[in-house]
């Protein structure tokens, strides 16, 4: 059975560019604090604050990125975002003072904040009839790219060779530049003409976001997105490693094995899951993902009561379950949002969605750190089960209001526009 979906050539080019950036991210993602402290001699506390500036820069410019997409187009915004991210990453490679570390990290965050929604908007434009497949493939290659980048970093980086870190960040910047060049070669179709064409009114700064905020259906999806991050992604990234090492008494190598198992599950199972789920409702897929995540959290709770061998197996299995849930969410959530977004506001809708992810990834680790500091790891995992339940309830209620065209995996082909090489 052929698992590879049929996508337009331009969509595949976009996915290849995304794979390049994912490899670069995988090479440098775990090392920023270590690099700034051990190689550049910046105090570890200051290095941690500098690393957090990546998220601060993203939060400050996320919504502006959406306006840039709607004003200049998704392709131009993506090229600009990756160019800024490349500059920030290259700057990190040569920092020599704390203020430079803050500036470089903020620049990288700004570039990522623009590039992330631009990728979503561009991919949705290039694959209007196969959005679920396109976003599923993108999620699979993200995990594969990050894993490949991590393995490459393991070969290249050496604590005794500071130049190896310099090389790593230069290579990361290079992947962004290559990705931007590839996107620049893509021909983007114009939006489908409405049945009764009329000139689009010029929007003042922020006016478009008032329309997004006034969309009651999107507000429900925005809250659902934050809950999904807190229910599935935050426990895996922030809670699981500490709980496994402290409460279950396992070594860090078990965390590494579990993370590899999670990434491989997504990379290998995503396309098969896409085939199996064809014809399902997207809200049903989200609810099922919540069920997998809740089960994984229950299994994690039991790890401290098992023998060592069973505990290791349970940890790895929990990470695999989280990955299965991720394969169900990726072809459901973002395609649903892009089906609902009006074409003139596509950038703003995607940017607002990206902001929901950022909020979730900011709140989750902060809350996790406070609770873990007070020995409340079990309570935190119980909370993730509750979050999964709340997200499932919200998805069920959303299904009652969501148009059928946005809640199905397959779409009727729209009128095919002429492609212009912009």
Automatic annotation (TrEMBL):
Keywords: Cell membrane, Membrane, Transmembrane, Transmembrane helix, Transport. Coiled coil: none annotated. Its main location: membrane. It is a multi-pass membrane protein. Residues 10-407 form the Major facilitator superfamily (MFS) profile domain. InterPro entries: MFS, MFS_dom, MFS_trans_sf, MFS_Transporters, Tet-R_TetA/multi-R_MdtG-like. It comes from the Bacteria. It is found in: Cell membrane. The chain crosses the membrane at residues 12-36, 42-64, 76-95, 101-123, 135-157, 163-188, 221-244, 250-273, 285-304, 310-337, 349-372, 378-400. PANTHER family: MULTIDRUG RESISTANCE PROTEIN MDTH, RESISTANCE PROTEIN MDTM, PUTATIVE-RELATED-RELATED. This is MFS transporter. It comes from Microbispora triticiradicis. The lineage of its organism: Bacteria, Bacillati, Actinomycetota, Actinomycetes, Streptosporangiales.
């Amino acid at each position: 059975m052929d698992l590879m979906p049929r996508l337009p050539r331009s969509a595949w080019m976009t996915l290849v560019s995304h794979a390049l950036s994912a490899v670069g991210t995988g090479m440098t993602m775990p090392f920023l604090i270590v690099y700034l402290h051990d190689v550049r001699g910046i105090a570890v506390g200051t290095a941690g604050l500098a690393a957090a500036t990546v998220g601060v820069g993203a939060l400050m410019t996320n919504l502006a990125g959406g306006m840039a997409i709607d004003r200049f187009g998704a392709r131009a915004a993506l090229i600009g975002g990756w160019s800024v991210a490349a500059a920030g990453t290259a700057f990190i490679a040569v920092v020599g003072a704390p203020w430079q570390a803050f500036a470089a990290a903020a620049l990288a965050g700004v570039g990522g904040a623009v590039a992330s929604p631009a990728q979503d908007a561009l991919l949705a434009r290039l694959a209007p009839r196969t959005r679920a497949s396109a976003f599923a493939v993108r999620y699979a290659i993200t995990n594969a790219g990050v894993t490949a980048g991590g393995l490459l970093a393991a070969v290249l980086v050496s604590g005794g060779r500071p130049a190896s870190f310099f090389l790593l960040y230069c290579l990361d910047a290079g992947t962004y530049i290559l990705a931007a060049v590839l996107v620049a070669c893509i021909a983007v179709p114009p939006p489908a003409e409405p049945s009764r064409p009329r000139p689009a009114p010029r929007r003042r700064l922020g006016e478009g976001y008032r329309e997004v905020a006034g969309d009651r259906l999107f507000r429900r999806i925005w809250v659902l997105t934050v809950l999904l991050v807190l229910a599935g992604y935050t426990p895996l990234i922030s809670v699981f490693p500490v709980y496994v090492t402290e409460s279950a008494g396992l070594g860090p190598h078990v965390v590494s094995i579990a993370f590899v198992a999670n990434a491989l599950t997504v990379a290998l199972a995503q396309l098969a899951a896409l085939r199996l789920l064809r014809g399902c409702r997207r809200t049903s897929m989200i609810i099922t993902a919540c069920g997998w995540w809740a089960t994984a959290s229950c299994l994690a709770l039991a790890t401290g009561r098992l023998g060592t061998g069973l505990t290791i197996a349970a940890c790895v299995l929990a990470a695999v379950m989280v990955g299965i849930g991720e394969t169900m969410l990726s072809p459901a959530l973002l395609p649903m949002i892009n089906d609902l977004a009006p074409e003139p506001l596509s950038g703003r809708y995607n940017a607002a969605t990206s902001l929901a992810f950022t909020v979730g990834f900011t709140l989750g680790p902060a809350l996790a750190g406070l609770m873990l500091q007070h020995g409340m790891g079990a309570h935190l995992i119980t909370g993730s089960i509750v979050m999964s339940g709340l997200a499932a309830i919200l998805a069920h209620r959303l299904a009652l209001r969501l148009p059928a065209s946005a809640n199905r995996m397959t779409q009727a082909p729209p009128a095919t526009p002429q492609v212009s090489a912009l």
